[in-house]
Write a structure and sequence with these properties.
With about 120 residues, the chain is α/β, with parallel strands linked by helices. The chain has helices spanning about 15-20, 45-50, 65-75, 85-95, and strands at about 5-10, 30-35, 55-60, 75-80, 100-105, 110-115, 120-125. Helix content is about 30%, strand content about 30%.
Length: about 120
């Protein structure tokens, strides 16, 4: 079972291409975005900058298909969380030092797991 992820940065009210290009998530490996992930007409530049800054997973309540394709081209995984799961992730972990991982479980289902201290929760995708 392979897993990818690490330190998590939360953008509860969304993120723009400008935020991505300026790298406002230093040290994070995972971005959790509280709204739809859409980088407008700069999808390729945004995905390149995510990779440049070490991001390996983007999780959001909706990821624009063009942005998802640009991320995939850069080797970045995207995870679409349903509204209830995304709200729970942000409410539970958004203000904590959190690590998050994308992996497959024993049955082959994709899951997103958040860990803060001794507390963890998994969300099936």
């Amino acid at each position: 079972m392979e897993k990818i992820g690490g330190k998590t940065a939360f953008f509860t009210s969304g993120i723009t291409a400008g935020d991505i290009i300026s790298g406002q998530f230093a040290g994070a490996k995972v971005l959790v975005v509280g709204e739809k992930m859409d980088s407008g007409d700069k999808v390729n530049e945004a995905a390149e900058n995510l990779k440049k800054h070490g991001i390996c997973v983007v999780a959001a309540g909706g990821i624009d298909p063009d942005f998802a394709a640009a991320c995939e081209k850069e080797g970045i995984c995207s995870a679409n969380l349903d509204k209830r799961s995304l709200e729970d992730v942000i409410r539970t972990f958004g203000d904590k030092d959190t690590e998050s991982f994308l992996s497959t479980n024993e049955e082959g289902a994709l899951k997103f797991k958040c860990i803060s201290g001794s507390f963890s929760k998994s969300y099936l995708l």
